[in-house]
Every structure is written in C-alpha cells, then in structure tokens.
Amino acid sequence: MNLQQHKTKRRRGVVLTSTGIQRLQEAIISWEILKNQGYRLTLEQLSRQVNISTKTLSRLWSLSKGVDQKTLKLCFSAFNLKLQKEDYTVLNEAEETGVLGFLSTNSSLQKDNFAQFSHNQEQYWSYPNGPVALDSPLYIERPPIEELVCREITRPGCVIRIRAPRQMGKSSLVLRLLAFANLKKYRTVNVNCHQIDNHCLTDLNKLLRCLCWKIAQQLDIKPNLDDEWDEEVGYKLSCSFYLQKYILQQSENPIVLVLSDVDRFFDYPHIAQEFFALLRSWCEEARQNQAWQKLRLVVVYSTEQYVSLDINRSPFNIGLPIRLIEFTQSQVEDLARRYELDWSPGQESTQLMSLVGGHPALIQLALYNLASGILTLQDLITDAIANGGIYRHHLWRHWMKLQSNPNLVKKYTEIVCSQASMSVDPVDAYKLESLGLICFDGDRILPRCELYRNYFQRQLHTTML
Prior knowledge:
Layout: H1 2-8, E1 14-16, H2 18-35, H3 43-50, H4 54-62, H5 69-78, E2 88-90, H6 93-99, H7 111-120, H8 145-152, E3 159-163, H9 170-183, E4 187-192, H10 204-218, H11 225-228, H12 235-247, E5 255-260, H13 269-286, E6 295-301, E7 320-323, H14 329-338, H15 348-356, H16 360-371, H17 377-387, H18 392-403, H19 406-417, H20 426-435, E8 438-441, E9 444-447, H21 450-464
Parallel strand pairs: 3-6, 3-7, 4-5, 5-6
Antiparallel strand pairs: 1-2, 8-9
Helix pairs in contact: 6-7, 10-12, 19-21
C-alpha cells in the first residue's frame, strides 16, 4: 500500500512555457551584455554558470522531455529571476515517456504501448530546414565569429560582409546578430533580395524605391516616397537623400540594415554595378558624415555566381569580412550530444565526417535522422555512397548548377577524377569554391567531401556515356 502511494505521488517533470522561455532568454542575453561584454555563452559556459549539466540543459531547451522544478529554479535564480507559475507546465506521464505532441489524452493506453510508440517515433527534433531558431539548443557557435560580428555592429558606420555557400549557416548567424542588435536598442531591417520582384531588377529607380519602401515599412515609418523622392537629381542621389534626410533623421538609435542574398543581383550586371557602387558610397560617406554613422550595413551573399566589379566601386572589399567555415570534429561531437546521441569520442564523428566533412547542413541532417531513429549511422553512410541517400536533394541542386555551366562541368570532372595536384583557372576555382564544391589543401584543389566525389564521379561518368 505504501509502495502504491509512493508511485502515485511521484514528482512529474516540467517544461518551460513560451513565457518562461522568453523571460529566461532575455535574462541570459542581458547577463551576456552586462557581464560578458556582449559575447554569447556556449552551452558549457552556461552549464558552469547555472551549475547544471549540459545534458540537462539540452533537455530543458528541447522542450521534449521534462526536468525537475529544482532545475528550473536554479536556472532562473542564476540570472536573478524568480520562477513563476506561468513559466512552466507539468508534463503528464505519457509526455514524460517521450510522446509529447503525438498522443491524445486516452488514459487507457498501457505503459508498454507508450514505450513501443516512443521507440518507433522521432525524438521531436525539428527537421533541419532553414536557419536554426534562436531558442534552439542546436546552434553551434564557431568562435570567434559570433564575438566579432556582435562587437563590430556596435561601431558607427560599420560594414559586415558575411560570405559562404548555401546551407553553411549565414541566416542562423544573422538571426543572432539581429537579436543582439535589438537588445542594444538598435532599429533593425532585414531585406531578403529574393523578395524583390524581377521587374525591379531591370530598372534601377524601381529597385531603389522598392528598397526604401521595405526599409521604411520595417521601421514603422510612413514611406512617403512620392514626396521625398526627386528623380531629377538622379536615382542614386534620391535614394541616398531619402535614407539620410528622411529615415536616419527619424531614428535616435543606430539602424542595422541586413541585405541578404545580394548575389541575386549578379544576374543583372548593369544593375549590380550601380547598386553595389551605391552601397560602397554609403560606407565611404559614414567615414566623414556623422548622420550616416547611424547606419550599420550587413551584406550577406553566397557568391554562387561570379561577377566582375570595379574594385573601386565594389562593397566586397571593405568592412569586416566574415567567412563561415565547416564544423570541427569537437563541434560535431558537441552537436551529437545535444541531439542526445551516445557517441564515443573520435569514433562515430570520424565515420560521418569522412563522408561529409564538417558541412553544417549535411551534419545536421545526418544527426536529425540518427537521433530520430530513422537510420543507423552505417545505413546512412552506405545509402549515401550508393545513391545519395538523405542527401539526394542537396546533391541534385549542385548538379543542376553545374549543368548550367558546361565549362565548370569539364573542370569539375577533372577534379573529382584526379587524385593528384592540378591547376585550375582562378575564375573557375572561385566559382567552384563559391558553389561549395571544392576545398583547398595547400596548393591542391579537392572535392569538398567524399560524398561529392562519389556522387559526381558517377553522374559525370553517366553523362559522358
């Protein structure tokens, strides 16, 4: 009887509510600004700060498994917060078994059914498609990049250039940079150039009016373009005067302007020349005009295409250059721990990286499938080598890019089929590296990873038959 009573009184796990997440995150970020010079805490540093293991913190942030209430109190008190009832919710027994979000409230299900269901279902990680959310425990910092961009954005009139091929983590980094800027009380604007209509990219006046309209809208300023725009002085001057005399004057705080995917303009060489020259002029104006120092410019691009720009008119050779690199082995193993995979140091990570290197998107996709129980590591590797496996779409996208440039197909065929050092025209090497298809080992040019070598050898061989 006593045993039964003990079972029914078992303390249930709790998870953070959206209110609790927001309060805790704001407190952590404030602490980072006041106590850590604005630098983000790593999971290990956060663990030491709150005196809780990294594994427990991962459970806390994942929202898929409960922690005890004492853990939450420790986290909150470490950042001068008092845990309140609206900060957490109590999980029922089914949710603690790992079926949160999948089961109804049917209490007649037996425990063994819960266990069987949990074993066959995903571990509730979000499918890795797009930027890593701000509240996700799955974001891996790549020091000193995060520190550099957060420090640089506080400099008047700064320019930050973030360059990397697709799926290397540019958008995830921008999310964190914007969050930092918001905490500094800066105004923020994030313009994705893929949202600009094609017809605006053939007419400089339409493009600049479109850009100014987007900036005003995101700042909650009435655009008032017809009254503030004077085409007689020229489109670029009209745009510059609009930003300086109308937008910047209405903001006491700095304005962070992020232009993402600007390589979209490379398809329109004439527009690209004029637009990028304008961006550079703003940067140069900030060196002598205090009004322009309120503008903090962040340019994000994949450079998956090559465009020849006058070096004196290009914004791609000024400001702080940030180039995202692959994960190291220790970072891959850290991410595996966050996915709650029980890996031995230097073993499973070596097997996976021998296939895909430290490519962030390919690593994330692999760990998602492994943590969800969809595949074993050996099955994942075997399937990927045989026919692309879980990476089919990623490989197909690269294949289509290559197909649109016959000269690159020829060069890449030589690279994937060669085991020796070879010379490649610098422009071709630039294009292939920007696509993310090659890497450099001293003076040797190699396929980015063995997955690419195997896949493209087969594809190119089939095409030549």
